[in-house]
Design goal:
By secondary structure, the chain is an alpha/beta fold. It has two domains: 2-117, Response regulator (Rossmann fold, 3-Layer(aba) Sandwich); 127-229, Winged helix-like DNA-binding domain superfamily/Winged helix DNA-binding domain (Arc Repressor Mutant, subunit A), CATH 1.10.10.10. The chain has eight helices and twelve strands. It has helices at 10-22, 33-42, 59-68, 84-92, 105-117, 153-164, 172-179, 190-204, and strands at 2-6, 26-30, 47-51, 75-79, 97-100, 127-130, 133-136, 142-144, 147-149, 169-170, 213-216, 220-223. Helix 2 (33-42) packs parallel to helix 3 and helix 6 packs across helix 8. The structure holds calcium ion. Calcium ion binds at residues 8-9, 51, 53-54.
Length: 230
């Protein structure tokens, strides 16, 4: 198992490294965000342990960049701030788990192992699917019950995002931020509008199939079929 630790506090970084190495894990350490991001993008790791506050690029930015580059290595974010708002912020930005400082090494190891065991979320597969829907990230083909569905580029990006995060609830603001980040011509209801288009094409056009785009009343949208209905 190969781990990347991005942590600027040398004492903490080095003790994590020692601990992992005693458990026979292979460890790379980066003491700043820029180096960490370079390592993460150029090497293959099983888990990235990422400090939230870093000189240069901070942890949230690194998460965002990795996910934007379609790098889905599990990320455990370390933070001195443990308020709920921060946890949400981190998870929104693509971290998979969170650990507040100070933490025990045993806890860190357990979390890292749990993340590494997680079925690799389609990271290397070009085929994403849910129920009778499949999306191919290489050929840009989408089909439901084997029938091709034609989507615009933005509908495709939105669907890909939803498939990679199925089961999670997102508000329309979060969807806008995650799928349309850095675009200037977005309106407050952009995500809602595109969800409507998508819903017509992948759900309403297939009335015999279970709906995939679900509204979680008062919270937002959840993609996929809930375990109960499988
Ligand atoms: Ca720090």
């Amino acid at each position: 198992m190969k781990i990347l630790v991005i942590e600027d506090e040398k004492r903490i970084a080095d003790s994590i490294r020692k601990g992992f190495e005693l458990k026979s894990l292979v460890v790379d350490v980066a003491y700043d965000g820029q180096t960490g991001l370079d390592f993460a993008l150029n090497e293959k790791y099983d888990v990235i342990v990422l400090d939230r506050m870093l000189p240069g690029f901070d942890g949230l930015y690194i998460c965002q960049q990795l996910r934007k580059e379609k790098n889905h290595t599990p990320i455990l974010m370390l933070t001195a701030k443990t308020e709920v708002v921060d946890r949400v912020e981190g998870l929104d930005n693509g971290a998979d788990d969170y650990l507040g400082k100070p933490f025990s090494f045993i806890e860190l190891l357990a979390r890292v192992r749990a993340l590494a065991r997680r079925p690799s979320q389609v990271e290397n597969s070009s085929l994403l699917s849910e129920d009778s829907l499949t999306l191919n990230t290489k050929t840009y083909e989408v089909s439901r019950t084997g029938q091709l569905v034609s989507l615009s580029k933005k509908e495709f990006s939105l669907l890909e995002f939803l498939l990679r995060n199925k089961g999670q609830v997102f508000t329309k603001e979060q969807l806008t931020e995650r799928v349309w980040s850095f675009e200037s011509d977005i309106l407050p209801n952009t995500a809602q509008v595109y969800l409507g288009y998508l819903r017509n094409k992948i759900d309403k056009d297939f009335p015999k199939e279970k709906p995939l785009i679900n509204t979680s009343r008062g919270f937002g949208y959840r993609f996929g079929i809930s375990e109960k209905k499988r």
